[in-house]
Amino acid sequence: MSAALSFVLHAALILHIALIALCVWRVWRGENVIDRLIGADLVGTLILGMLVIIAMIRGNALYIDVALGLAALGFVSTIALAKYVADGRMF
Amino acid sequence: MTTLLQAFAILAIITGAAFSTLGVLGYYRLPDVYTRLHATGKVSVFGVVLLVVAAAVLTPLGFGKGLVLIFMLVLGGPVASHAIASAAHTIGIPLARTTRDDLAVVQDAAPFDPGAGS
Fold first, then answer.
1. What Rg do the C-alpha atoms of chain A give, in angstroms?
2. Do B24 and A19 touch (CB under 8 A)?
3. How far is B76 from chain A (nearest CA, A)?
4. What burial letters (b/e) apply to B56-66, b meaning 16+ CB within 10 Å?
5. What is the crossing angle of helices A62-87 and A33-58, to 10°?
6. By the CB < 8 Å criterion, does B26 face chain A?
7. How far apart are CA B29 and CA B17, in angstroms?
8. B40-47: average pLDDT
9. CB–CB of A78 and B84 under 8 A?
10. How confident is the model at residue A1 (pLDDT cuts 50, 70, 90)?
């Protein structure tokens, strides 16, 4: 791995950590429940990107599998929470 | 060849990180829930997908896993965004600086009944 690629990967990792910190702050001090739900979904998506960057840094495709599981679980949890907010019950 | 692939990967990573940054900035700065949802859709569909393209170029994972992940993101992102927006409109989150609300007209004319068709 060249030096430029390594630098770009680590810079992108630090950037994603900073973006996750911003989103967690917004989830904590949100305006309403939908705003916080969007923030939680966004944190899940950014952690997905972080896992892909870590897979590139380590050169290990195992992290892509973890990202696959996280994508499926995050999708289901977002749909379930949106339905709970809209209807007042989960099922 | 390796240098060319690495240059392509660097370009994809920078573009994806820029899309993620713009999405989070939009989540911070836009006025109401629906426009924020429009901004955060870009993070899942462009930001992460470009990172996965770079990973499929760089690491020996095969295109299969990357394609499955891209398929899942592109399929799941709009569905989740639509579910959140529908929930927001159902519990009555106000729209900022709007001129008219088409969905309110539809809901007043014919209230949605899930059990009507069966």
1. 16
2. yes
3. 6
4. bbbbebeeebb
5. 180
6. no
7. 18
8. 89
9. yes
10. low
Mutation pick from A25, A48, A81 vs chain B, by most beta carbons of B within 10 Å, is A48
Pairwise CA distance, residues A87 & A53, whole Å: 37
Q: Between the CA atoms of A38, B28, A70 and A53, what dihedral angle is there, to the nearest 10 degrees?
A: 170
Answer whether B33 touches A (CB < 8 Å): yes
The reply to whether residue B79 touches residue A79, judged by beta carbons under 8 angstroms, is yes
d(CA A20, CA A53): 14
pTM comes to 0.87
Sign of CA dihedral B43, B82, A83, A74: negative
Mean pLDDT over A45-58 rounds to 92
- Asked whether the beta carbons of A90 and B91 are under 8 A apart, the reply is no
How far out from the chain centre does Cα B14 lie? 19
Nearest to A48 by CA among B26, B60, B76, B63: B76
Mean pLDDT value of segment B1-25: 91
Please write the tens of the pLDDT for every residue from B8-17: 999 999 999 9
pLDDT, tens digit (0-9, with 9 covering 90-100), for B44-90: 889 999 999 998 888 776 678 888 999 999 998 899 999 999 899 88
